[in-house]
């Protein structure tokens, strides 16, 4: 008997993919970040706003929140092995096409997809303290 329920890998992959395709770009926009290097755990060079205006205060709060979550994404990616981190970085951080990734890595498209799905699973476990993207079978 296992202590943990069985992970539903397909649903966990779906959740993590949705995070990287929908939420991640939104966080990048909110943080005013076009590209974050996941090799560096420090996100620097961000514009800082100083104002007492309420609308601006909300923007600054959202900006700080987004920067914080992006920092946690970077930290979680740091826990992935090189091959999986590289595919995530090239696809979602650098926004390269699958053809460009294939040229850089030499992996076939189907192999890239397998690596990306494994990366999604590794990320889901590494990111659990921030947002639990895992789905367990009942």
Q: What is the structure about, briefly put?
A:
The chain has about 140 residues and is mainly alpha-helical. It has helices spanning about 10-30, 55-75, 80-95, 100-105, 110-125.
Descriptive overview:
- The chain is mainly alpha-helical.
- It has one domain (9-126).
- It is 61% helix and 0% strand.
- The protein contains five helices and no strands.
- The two termini are 14 Å apart.
- The model is unreliable at 40-52 (pLDDT under 50).
Features:
138 residues, mainly alpha, globular, 61% helix
Rg over CA atoms, rounded to whole Å, is 17 Å
Strand-residue fraction? under 5%
Largest sheet: none
As an assembly, this protein is single chain
Layout of strands and helices, then pairs:
Layout: H1 9-30, H2 54-77, H3 82-93, H4 98-105, H5 109-126
Helix pairs in contact: 1-2, 1-5, 3-5
Protein name: RNA polymerase subunit sigma-70
InterPro entries: ArpU-like, RNA_pol_sigma_r3/r4-like, WH-like_DNA-bd_sf
């Amino acid at each position: 008997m296992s202590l943990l329920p069985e992970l539903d890998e397909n649903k966990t992959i779906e959740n993590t993919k949705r995070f990287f395709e929908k939420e991640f770009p939104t966080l990048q926009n909110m943080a005013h970040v076009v590209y974050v290097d996941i090799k560096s755990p420090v996100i620097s060079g961000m514009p800082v706003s100083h104002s007492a205006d309420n609308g601006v205060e909300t923007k600054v709060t959202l900006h700080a929140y987004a920067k914080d979550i992006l920092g946690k994404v970077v930290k979680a990616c740091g826990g992935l092995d090189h091959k999986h981190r590289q595919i995530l970085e090239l696809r979602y951080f650098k926004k390269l096409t699958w053809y460009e990734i294939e040229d850089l890595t030499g992996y076939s498209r189907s192999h890239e997809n397998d690596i990306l799905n494994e990366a999604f699973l590794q990320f889901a476990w590494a990111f659990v303290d921030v947002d639990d993207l895992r789905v367990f079978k009942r």
